[in-house]
Write a structure and sequence with these properties.
heterodimer, A: mainly beta, 6-stranded mixed beta sheet, 11 strands, B: 7-stranded mixed beta sheet
Chain lengths: ~110, ~110
């Protein structure tokens, strides 16, 4: 079992719809959870981080964390073509001394 | 405030040659990470440093790879000798206190012919 798993996609949604990106992790000691966006040919850039169970909202983005189910998700409301990118889930465990473990990424395509 | 700086941005070399990639972390950050990204394997952590000291190099693929951090503002990743399978994008990232957000540099696209 991979430490951090994501559906590779591609996930295709129409413009204006809600895009839902999911991630599961195996280490129950995980404490911090991050979502990065990576455009083709560019470096990963942070979108959001979440530490506590529940929802965290930032503009059109909402991160959801359920530690009991070892599940973290990212919702993008009112999706725009400019949101088309690969979204990387990353998990940091204090047990691993500060390392971030990345999932393979989910490719999102927002169709006009 | 300048972000993470990497050089060169692109490197094309021939098999067997030595390759040196360079990174300048964000000022004040005490953790530095080297990653490699390929389509097949995704983003892999190679090695990371805390206060210039290597903490975990378990991701370094083999002895051909080495990394140094002689001071807080500079790190190198060296491949000697290079092989075609080393072709990838190499990212450097830095963070403060290691458990916080990692900020990535623009990457070095390495092609080994």
């Amino acid at each position: 079992q991979k430490e951090v798993e994501q559906n590779s996609g591609p996930l295709s949604v129409p413009e204006g719809a809600i895009a839902s990106l999911n991630c599961t992790y195996s280490d129950r000691g995980s404490q911090s959870f991050f979502w990065y966006r990576q455009y083709s040919g560019k470096s990963p850039e942070l979108i959001m981080f979440i530490y506590s169970n529940g929802d965290k909202e930032d503009g059109r983005f909402t991160a959801q964390l359920n530690k009991a189910s070892q599940y973290v998700s990212l919702l993008i409301r009112d999706s725009q073509p400019s949101d088309s990118a690969t979204y990387l889930c990353a998990v940091n465990s204090y047990n691993q001394g500060g390392k971030l473990i990345f999932g393979q990424g989910t490719e999102l395509s927002v169709k006009p | 405030d300048a972000g993470v700086i990497q050089s060169p941005r692109h490197e094309v070399t021939e098999m067997g040659q030595e390759v040196t990639l360079r990174c300048k972390p964000i000022s004040g950050h005490d953790y530095l990470f080297w990653y490699r990204q390929t389509m097949m394997r995704g983003l892999e952590l190679l090695i990371y440093f805390n206060n210039n000291v290597p903490i975990d190099d378990s991701g370094m693929p083999e002895d051909r790879f080495s990394a140094k951090m002689p001071n807080a503002s500079f790190s190198t990743l060296k491949i000697q000798p290079s092989e075609p399978r080393d072709s990838a994008v190499y990212f450097c990232a830095s963070s403060s206190q290691g458990r916080d957000t990692q900020y990535f540099g623009p990457g070095t696209r390495l092609t080994v012919l």
